[in-house]
Design goal:
This protein is an alpha/beta fold. The chain has 10 helices and 8 strands. The chain is 50% helix and 15% strand. α7 crosses α9.
């Protein structure tokens, strides 16, 4: 079933560009049923069935996160993707806390957007490559209670990006086990392990195993 989608951005050139890109790559998972260039136009569209909303974080003079919670309450089943110029960790974190399902920057490749759409329509969250929920973690810095709570929230969101099998593979990667050993323990092929490893690193915006292990341990993902 094709998902009904709305694109919301105060720049007409951008909304037209997104439509053009999806058409050019023949992406058929969604059907664009509406375009909103203001909060008023977006609110008017909530009267009709919408499965997916792709929106800029800043709409007109308002911060998009102010209406995310309202939209989720009005339309509990709607999936919301932020496609924005803004990628600061605090903004990304706040958006997810408000209830967004995916976050992609406008500077990302179109493949990142379509992958994000596929993820959220299948009930998963998606954080695009290179984005973070918090500044670089410093293991030597004493954390306040608030910082510990934020770290816990980060961990939950980051873990949601991975499938159960990817978490199993990751738990063995941090033990410095190679693909062959992991394959034997999980009763899968070396090639499958390699594919899982690559997908995990891509989801976290990491390009080598050493950094992946450090990232995993720092954020206590397994």
């Amino acid at each position: 079933m094709v998902a009904r989608a709305v694109i919301a951005d105060n720049q007409r050139m951008f909304t037209e560009g997104v439509q053009s890109i999806l058409k050019d790559i023949n992406y058929t998972a969604i059907k664009i049923v509406g375009i909103a260039h203001s909060l008023d136009e977006l609110n008017a569209m909530t009267k009709y069935p919408i499965d997916l909303l792709i929106m800029e974080l800043a709409m007109a003079d308002h911060l998009g996160t102010n209406i995310i919670t309202e939209l989720k309450q009005i339309m509990p089943g709607i999936k919301i993707i932020i496609l924005s110029n803004y990628g600061e960790p605090k903004l990304v974190r706040d958006a997810f806390k408000k209830g967004v399902d995916g976050y992609v920057l406008k500077t990302h490749h179109s493949i990142e957007l379509t992958q994000c759409i596929d993820f959220v329509l299948n009930g998963r969250t998606y954080l695009a490559e290179g984005l973070r929920l918090a500044p670089e973690y410093d293991a030597n810095k004493k954390q306040t209670q608030s910082e510990r709570l934020k770290a816990c929230e980060d961990r939950i969101i980051l873990r949601q990006k991975l499938t159960r099998r990817e978490l199993e593979v990751l738990s063995l990667i941090v033990q410095y086990k190679n693909n062959k050993t992991i394959a034997q323990e999980l009763f899968i092929s070396d090639q499958t392990v390699s594919a899982h490893r690559k997908r995990i690193m891509k989801k976290f915006g990491i390009n080598n195993t050493v950094k992946l292990i450090k990232f995993t341990l720092d954020h206590q993902l397994v």
